[in-house]
TrEMBL record:
One of its GO terms (molecular function) is FAD binding. It comes from Thermus oshimai JL-2. Signal peptide: none annotated. It comes from the Bacteria. Residues 1-169 form the FAD-binding PCMH-type domain. Pfam families: FAD_binding_4. Keywords: FAD, Flavoprotein. InterPro entries: FAD-bd_PCMH (IPR016166), FAD-bd_PCMH-like_sf (IPR036318), FAD-bd_PCMH_sub2 (IPR016169), FAD-linked_Oxase-like_C (IPR016164), Oxid_FAD_bind_N (IPR006094). This is FAD/FMN-dependent dehydrogenase.
Amino acid sequence: MLRPKTPEEVQEAVLAHPRLRVRGSGSKPALSEPEEGEALLDLSQLKGVVEYDPEELVLVARAGTRVAEVEALLKAHGQHLPFHPPLSAPGATLGGTVAAGLSGPLAQRFGGVRDFLLGVRFVDGQGRLLKGGGKVVKNAAGFPFHRLMVGALGAFGVLVELAFKVFPAPPATRTLRVAFPSLEEALSALERLLLAPLDLMALDLLPPNALEVRIGGFPEALGPRLEKLKRLLGRDGEVLEEDEAHWEGVRNLAFLEGPLLLKVPSRLDLIPLLEGLPLGRRRYLLGGNVLYAEGDGEALKALRARGLAHLVLKGAEDPLFPRPQNPFFQKVKAALDPLGRFPLR
């Protein structure tokens, strides 16, 4: 196992090995377990905050820095990572979060990890230390190359440093859970909420027939806003008492315990189809646009038989479906990793 502590040591490791598998903390084992012939590049020691300016709302850190450590620092200044990185409690790192392209429930309101990544430094397959983007919010010069690293699963290189814009955290939050007689009625209500001019922090579907809606802002405004939601939905629902703890569990996927952990892109019109598949416990985030579910081999077969794209975070040796065939992806891969040091799983 290789455990570099500096970007220069990452460069040395890349040049010394023909095939590498990069791991942050191992919170997404299906993506980070090495196969035969691959050297394990463990970035857990490539950590630490490099720069943080609360007034400028910018944070720069090494790729192996754990999300939980960053969030503790930001919380002390009343700030947070608005894309709400999943798997913080199990030890997710900044680099692994970007490589897997994962965003949590608050992305419904603020946007995903791609929207908050300002820049990266990474080592490509030829051992070059390259830079994409920058460290300022108003960085519009040139092609936003750094965003290609989001969800690329490390195919283009090893992330060593990342810059993010951060936001002030809302002073107070409340959550309304509403159950409906059927999935059809729940989906109809979900569509109404998506189309309404509402400022919702999170909007999730809990199968088979419930919605959870989170709002944030000044405490005195939340009561009237909850009443407006109830009127729009035509139901009183339940206001959750432990709002913060509840959503920490959601973003950490604590509701999933099966042998396979899946992320599936979704849409409102796909949800009835997905609900007919042999999936275990599950939850639709971001207004029904992302499904996190547990499953088994039968679940994988069912998804692939229907051509439904998905990413396995835990429990499968072939985690990515379908394999990328986009010519642009192939050209970038050939330019940055011509020797194939970073194979996709």
